[in-house]
Amino acid sequence: GRLTKRVGTPPGGMMSSSMRRLLDPNTHSFIPAEGDSSLPPVVNRLQGEVTYSDLESPISLNQPVIKFALNRNLFVIVKRVLLDCCVNRECWCFSSEGLACVGQDEIVFLLECLPQETLPPKHVFLLINSLYQDAAKGSTVSEMTFTPAMSNNLLNSRDHGGFLYIRTSYQCTAQLALPSPPYLVALLIHRWETPWARLFPIRLVLRMGAEFRYYPCPLVSVRDRPPLYTEIGHTIINILADFRKYSYSLPSVRGLVIHMEDRQTTINIPRNRYDQVVRALNNSNDSVLAFGANLSLAADSHLVCMQSTEDENTSYHTQAINIHNKPRRVTGASFVVFNGALKVPGLAGKSSIVEDGLMVQVPSETMVALRTALRDMRDYSIGCGPNAEETVVLQWTADDTNFNIGVKSCVDGRPLDGVPSIRVHNGTDYSGGTRIIRWTEVFILQCEDSDHSNEPLDISRLSESIARATCLALVPLLDLLSAASLTTLAVRTTIHPDNVGYEAGSN
């Protein structure tokens, strides 16, 4: 029988001599190390067989997508498109294909074309290749994370500091060539904006939305634009985050949103994020408690923190942006700070907008009661103003399920929105003659009528055993599966005392 062996995560399996192309020893990919205009090869696939060729001519507007190969398992779809439906800019659209096989969400780069630019920038290919190599070692990027520039000349400018990754929400994607969900969109960041991208990215994202008048932010990256923030200066975030060593920031609770309405502000906390709330309580001092918030899809507008950048006055002030042609009813905020030092007789609380967040001042005894309520997972209300004209409400809400949005099962197309999953890094590669098969992810589907009387299953060990058996069974068929373009496979197993079975499929 065939042998299985544990290997790192190679850029590709063994190929026949007619399909083999050597990797560049410097980039560890098909991307040539020398020359800014030297691009990776174009890939063509016919009945599972792959051939490579060099790009023969410049890429024109709205011509069919071109598929470049970075290695034998990683590709980039490139399209030049005029986004006349929304931002009216001519852009390069890069979409990765293959990052998922190393446990990384696919990535989209939408880069405004420069005048007279006829070829896609090589730097984007290099970055996607770097993300692939990092993910193969277990280091991935996720929503609202930042990767610094790999050199001082990213996209031929010292002013480009790196990329910040976001999910799409209200943005138009009508003309884009997009990968299968879940995917991230990379935003080009100015080097002066790097501290905010690292420590408090939601502020920067919404500031970009205000700059380009696009809610909540544009997907298009513009090269050589002026910075939106300069010197840090005097900001409330200075006391909540470490701008020197980036060692800490204000705690962010996944799914927590702040809704400001007429005479009431509501802080919604998902019940399945209780552990993150307790961690924030344990890491804060007795008199100050802060939470970073998330972009709320239920809000139609959001506070934005602006900074004066044209003179030496680097002060901050507040604006708001909203969905075009929609009245403001619910305004989102980026953070909330509770300060337990209020000592005004007869005043139970005082709330005010600070930059793009909310400051709530309360007496020390109210702060103690608030902390106790959060630990007990109880709702809590604070009346603010001399006559309690405004109310701040902290309430526990339904579980946060805003993940794996748009993902569908390969077995039967069943939506997997909100279904938790675990990415597998550095797993076993099962090798056939010319191809490998690899287990990359497990989705945990819960059965409503499960029997809780028995000991719970070890999901990790069980799923690994199922994956191993599946891969071993499919190794002899890898060439046939590839020829049929069945490269993503799924097995859904049922483990129950009265029902054990499986279903399999491919997309």
Q: Strands, helices and their partners?
A:
Elements: E1 42-46, E2 49-53, E3 66-71, E4 74-82, E5 90-97, E6 106-112, H1 122-136, E7 146-148, E8 160-166, E9 183-190, H2 194-199, H3 201-211, E10 257-261, E11 264-270, H4 274-283, E12 288-292, E13 301-307, E14 316-322, E15 331-332, E16 335-339, E17 350-354, E18 357-361, H5 364-375, E19 380-384, E20 390-397, E21 421-423, E22 429-431, E23 436-438, E24 441-443, H6 459-474, H7 478-483, E25 489-496, E26 499-506
Parallel strand pairs: 6-9, 11-20, 13-15, 16-18
Antiparallel strand pairs: 1-2, 3-4, 4-5, 5-6, 7-8, 8-9, 10-11, 10-15, 12-16, 13-14, 17-18, 19-20, 21-24, 22-23, 25-26
Organism: Homalodisca liturata
Domain Smad anchor for receptor activation-like C-terminal: 178-507
InterPro entries: SARA-like_C
Characterize the structure shown.
With about 500 residues, the protein is of the alpha+beta class. The protein folds into three domains: about 40-210, no CATH class; about 255-395, Gyrase A, domain 2, CATH 3.30.1360.220; about 420-505, Murine Class I Major Histocompatibility Complex, H2-DB, Chain A, domain 1 (2-Layer Sandwich), CATH 3.30.500.40. About 15% of the residues lie in helices and about 30% in strands. It is built from seven helices and 26 strands. It has helices at about 120-135, 195-200, 200-210, 275-285, 365-375, 460-475, 480-485; strands at about 40-45, 50-55, 65-70, 75-80, 90-95, 105-110, 145-150, 160-165, 185-190, 255-260, 265-270, 290, 300-305, 315-320, 330, 335-340, 350-355, 355-360, 380-385, 390-395, 420-425, 430, 435-440, 440-445, 490-495, 500-505. A seven-stranded mixed β-sheet has the order 3-4-5-6-9-8-7. Strands 14-13-15-10-11-20-19 form a seven-stranded mixed β-sheet, sandwiched between helices. It is globular, with a radius of gyration of 25 Å. Mean pLDDT is about 90; it is low at about 1-20. Pfam families: SARA_C.
